[in-house]
Design a protein that fits this description.
6-stranded mixed sheet, 4-stranded antiparallel sheet, 10 strands
Length: 244
């Protein structure tokens, strides 16, 4: 999926949270969105997912899968259509979870919403066994009683169950131990390579972000001030120098 931002502005009172004249994320890109606290990363995600209404400007999504679904337009704006949701997976925080369910009950709910059969669900969940590490799948605890790391895993797995064309994850490495971080990086890279999906992550972990991202967007004070290619794995040095 391709995402394009044009003259996108969101303010809260006298603070400008997002101000992006023009920026695009290409189909099949793994984009790492980095910046200090308050840079506007989460607000940008919420605008992209139509969870916030922009003061002005547009977010446009285009995907070949829209045409496969019989849609007449290959490009749409999230605020004007619901069709993009079937091709999108996102996990920003615990508010995306139904914490009165067990993880398996939650995954069953997600599967029903996306018309995924029980057999297909079992196959898709098996792919996430290494990330689950025996602590999420098949467990009887309610989500609200899970550790922060296992809630994170539950949200990420749920976001990917519908095999989306666009994945948005806010601080996905938070609360994960080193094994979980490595498994998540492997899963995201493999999924991107196998499907060509566009993946956008934000993270304060420069190492984890640059490990998997094909490019980096540096965001400060609501604006994307620099795009850094990570084709040769050189972005981490440039980011460390910037934040130093």
């Amino acid at each position: 999926m391709r995402i394009e931002y044009n003259n996108l502005i969101k303010t809260f009172g006298d603070k400008t949270a997002v101000n992006i004249p023009e920026f695009s994320i290409e189909h099949g890109e793994i984009l790492g969105l980095v910046g200090n606290n308050g840079a506007g990363k989460t607000t940008l995600f919420r605008l992209t997912l139509d969870l916030l209404k922009a003061d002005s400007g547009t977010v446009s999504l285009s995907s070949k899968r829209f045409a496969d679904d019989g849609m007449t337009a290959a490009t749409l704006q999230p605020s004007q259509s619901e069709a993009w949701k079937a091709h999108t997976g996102a996990y920003l925080d615990e508010g995306f979870l139904l914490d009165f369910l067990t993880p398996d009950e939650y995954f069953t709910f997600v599967a029903k919403v996306n018309n995924i059969s029980s057999n297909e669900l079992a196959q898709r969940l098996a792919y996430f066994e290494p990330l689950s590490n025996g602590e999420v799948l098949g467990q009887t605890k309610y989500i609200r009683d899970l550790s922060a790391g296992n809630k994170q895993k539950t949200g990420i797995i749920g976001a990917m169950l519908n095999q989306p064309d666009m994945i948005i994850l806010d601080e996905p490495f938070n609360y994960l131990d080193p094994s979980g971080q490595n498994q998540l990086k492997r899963i995201l890279q493999e999924y991107n390579q196998q499907t060509g999906a566009t993946i956008i992550i934000s993270s304060h972990s420069l190492h984890n972000t640059t490990d998997i991202s094909t490019s980096i967007a540096l965001m400060e004070h609501g604006a994307i001030i620099r795009r850094i290619s990570n084709a040769n794995g050189e972005a981490e040095k440039e980011l460390e120098a910037y934040f130093a």
